[in-house]
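FW: tagging you since you asked about this chain on Friday. Here's the raw sequence from the shared folder, copied in full. Didn't touch anything.
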Amino acid sequence: MRIILTIAQRELAAYFATPVASVFIVIFLVLQGAMTFNLGNFFDRGQADLNPFFTFIPWVFLLLIPAITMRLWAEERRLGTIELLLTLPITQGQAVIAKFLAAWAFCAIALALTFPFIISVNLLGNPDNGVIASGYVGCLLVAGAFLSIGSALSAATRNQVIAYVLAVAVCFVFAVASYPLVTDFLNRNTPILAEIARRIAVIDRFQAFTRGVVSVRDVTFFATFIGFWLFLNTVLVDQRKAD
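HL: got it, structure written out here
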């Protein structure tokens, strides 16, 4: 575990060694602020809560998180440094987990910097801070789910643009899987797929957290979801490292 944390710390530091981290965080905060207070009609609603914030954040993640993950493995393969990384006294699984944890910690930092939103709603009213806290837990889990997808797809190609587009597309599928337009279409053709779509829908699971419900079932879903994609990530790294 110490090896994983050491590599994760090094990877996290690498984010802040370039302007990329600052640019990402600024764009994230500006987008979330604009959507929460403008598109979300925060002041017109007359309610001091962060429902607009939680409504839009999965879609902001959908666009921005693939920008983080697209370079995780694609850049290593393009530069030929993946062989160097894997010659270190670590397993491929440890390398995958370390990179994932670094990216997840980076997203957690970006989320933590939205604390002025929490202060604002508390100054304007008396929100349920327990619900806000569970919503943030849900945000972190959604970020982890999208990061695991993006990391696996980054390992599948050496082209960062392709990795980005694939990650956005696949994350979008899991985001809208339970939407009526999708499930109604599947019900008419393959009802079994409709039921599967409802079960794997990330947004549905996230919405429970925004209502203040933190269930073992939903946490287990996200843990299993992330674990599956990280396992796939490890398999792809193993298959592609010699390309």
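FW: The CA atoms of residues 92 and 106 lie 21 Å apart.
HL: agreed, and The chain has one domain: 2-240.
FW: great, closing this out.
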